[in-house]
Each structure stands twice: as structure tokens, then as C-alpha cells.
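Re: copper (II) ion structure - here you go.
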Amino acid sequence: MRKTATTTTHRILSLLLPAVLFAATPALAKTVKVDIHAIEHDVEIDNKGTKFAAWTFGGTMPGPVVRVTEGDTVDFTLINDPGNGNSHSMDFHAAIVDVLDEFEAVKPGSSKHYTFDAKYPGVFMYHCGAANMAQHIAKGMYGIIIVDPKEGYTKNYPKPDREYVLVQSQFFPKCGDAMEIVENIGSTNSLINGKIFHYDPLHGEPSAKTLESKPGELVRIFFVNANVNEPVAFHPIGNIWARVYPNGNPKNVMYGMQTYNVAVSEASAFDIYSPAGRTTHNAYVDHTMKAAHHGAITIMTNSPEADPNMGKGDNILIR
Ligand SMILES: [Cu+2]
């Protein structure tokens, strides 16, 4: 009797198993604690080590990658370090709140705590909104928050082999006169993840690293336009975006795109298959020539020897 019951259970399990394996597993909502320090200090804005007096989230430009799942509650604290000279704030584009309350600026030595629910899946910019906002963004106070869809990966939003974050911004070396930044005066270069030609050994320093994938892999790029004033014509030289997800929401899908125009403050996801069967290079660029010539080129090396850890887990924003 007992044996029969066990056998029956096994049969039921074996019938259910394929369905369980292929069904999307909805994530359980949780509270994610995020503490970020505003830190005013020098950062390097190219691969030569040229210094820039930045204002940052967490000490880096862009700030840390924040990643949660749709439905999660983000329990956030901004700590404005006492050694800083300016008030700062945090504006998460993934939050639905009161701009005058949650997004208020706090003085050095103070902190601001608030919570919000990540209601929409996708990729979103975050930035400082303290006056003058253009200056605080140009100084380096921006980053990305990824809200993974609660239903997980699906046929229309497949699991990628690798993921990379690319945040583009305008570099204003002087950064002193806020109204000049607002009027787009004084920007000399484009930064990708905080550096000029960050991943381009051809135009930048020959020591620069490139992004890496293996031939035939699916790569998902989470791209943020953190420019103060200029849209980005995001284009993969030698390839085609297989899918573009405007705002990174799996429900928004465009297929076979050569170039996608990313508005200021927009973030989107881009799926691309590295050419199969041989080693190749693709260049993800802002096809706006002024931006490409001044730093907005990212080389992707597609090789069987690709670093197995690059573009995986926490290693998606390459410093
Ligand atoms: Cu600020």
C-alpha cells in the first residue's frame, strides 16, 4: 500500500516536474535596504588617471548598481557625509512619492530616509536633485536602479548569458557655473561609466579593457542616458539590437533595431547576440558624432576566451 502510494507520488511528481521547470517562478516581495553616502572627492575620468573633483553617490561615478525585483519595497537612506560642502538629495526614477518630501535635499552631516515600492519592472536612472540639478548631475551624482520583473525570465524576455550596465554622461571639466551647464556650455567629452573611452583601446589608452562575451551569446545591455542636455543615438557597429525594451520593461519590445534614440534621463535594455562561429568585435556607440569622437565608444570583444566572470552576477558595471 505504502509502496503504491510512493510510486503514485513519484508518477505525479514526474508529470509535474517539466511544468515546474518551465513555469516562470514569481518572486516573493521583500524589503531591500539601500544606504548610500554622498561623497565629494576626486575620481579618475579616463584610463590615464586624470583627476576630476566629483560629487558622487558611494564614491564612484556612476554610483552603485541598485537591483531589486518588481513588488519589492526599497528602504532607502541617503547619508550626506559631514565633510561635504553641499546639500544633496536622491531622486529614484523607479519611485512614486512626493518630490518635496522624499526627494528633498539634506545638508552635510544629515541624512534622509524614505521607502518606496518598486511598482514597475525595468531600468531607471537615479540622480541627485539638489539645486542646481544640472550641476549635481554633471558633477557625477547619477546611477542605475534595475527592477527585475516579478515573473522572471520568459520567452519574450529570455535569460541572457551576460549583462552589462553602461551609463553615458556629459563631461564638463570646469563645472563651476551651474547656468553654463544648463545652457550646455563647456562640455568637452562623453563619459561611459565615468570615463572617456572607458572600454575603447583603439581611441583611448591602449591599456583600456573591453567588454567581453563568447561568440553566439545573448548579451543584455542596461543603458542609461545621464547626459544633462543631449539625447543618445545608441547603435551597435557591426551588429543589430535583436530586441530593444524601452525603459527596460519586458512588455515594451522592439525588434531588429539599428539605432534607438535614448532621451535624457531615459534608461532602456538592449538585447544583442554576439556573432556566432568566430571571434569578432562590435562597438556600441552614440552615433551622434560629437559624442562618439569624444568618448562614447564601447568595444565588445566576442571571443571563445572571454572572461567567464565578466557580465555575470555583481560584475555587470565594469569599473
Ligand atoms: Cu547632489
